[in-house]
Predict the structure of Amidohydrolase.
Amino acid sequence: MPVLNRIADFHQEMTGWRHDFHQHPELAFEEVRTSGIVADKLREFGVDEVITGIAKTGVVGVIRGSAPGPAIGLRADMDALPILEETGVPYASKTPGKMHACGHDGHTTMLLGAAKYLAETRNFAGTVYLLFQPAEENFGGGRVMVEEGVFTRFPMERVFGIHNWPGHKAGEFLWRVGPVMAAVGNIDITITGKGAHGAMPNNGNDPIVIASQIVSAFQSIVARNVEPLESGVVTIGHIRGGHTHNVIPETVLLQGTARWFKPEVGDLLEQKVRDLATGIATAYGAKAEVQFTRLYPATVNEEASTDLAKQAAAAVVGENRVVFMEKPTMGGEDFSFMLNEKPGAYLMLGGQRAPTDANVHHPKYDFNDEILPIGASYFATLAEQLLPR
């Protein structure tokens, strides 16, 4: 696969960085070791400025080109997930219960590779801001960086991100204009009934029965309320209640997720979740407390920026390996907060070794090191194409 020759030269070095990050995963806003290594490497590469402490553990590197000009931002996420790794690779996580199950170790490494190349060559006019973001997984580190003024302190015309995609051919870029990833909401429902002996249910008010009715009713929210040509998801992924065979508990907790693209669909999902949960609980003489927490807006690619991203990707892998992404994914991404503030684009980079590869957020997932120089070359090419001398 064609990549920038200089970046190809340190492919093995990049693989070593990635394996080190993988062995030492850190969760959201805990990326102290990771961000420290990132900052040290940026200084080692000769990056002009290295700013730490943004959004607690975030890092921004500043590389100035060979002449004055405009500025762009390149972003990578750094955090891991609370998952027990089952890959069996020699560089597996050394921290039980934590692993890089989404490839952020690879994303960070690709941007470091681009930084090393750009700091050496300076074959562009203007400024490149390297945004190493913490806490993408559920804690909105992108939102915090925006709130802390990252675009005010580091003014840029456009911002670009990338995500590995193990379900697609290695080395192929996927693009689309408009929504590429969904908005995300968390659902937390506490149902309070009345506990009793399991053999005497008439003495209680069983919240497990009520919870089962609520979960079943939720299946009608999208099916019978969302316009068929629109998209929405309501999933209950966790139920907790009771401790043994023959005791009816006092409370049951339901936790789930909602996904949507259009804001009005998100409003509808929230209202229906609240109405059904509280209405069903009330009908049974119980109480339901509902929290619907909106985490991320939809990730929406701007058209002109997407065209620029496609051109850079094609320069690295060829036009025939830059393919249209027919459908957005219902996964969420807090790069959306950055795209709400600045024009930009978010591409997927295929990383599949075999059709049986584990997907992201799976305990057997592992980033494909063969695409490291491709992603790094893409970031570097964006800078050289968008900021020509």
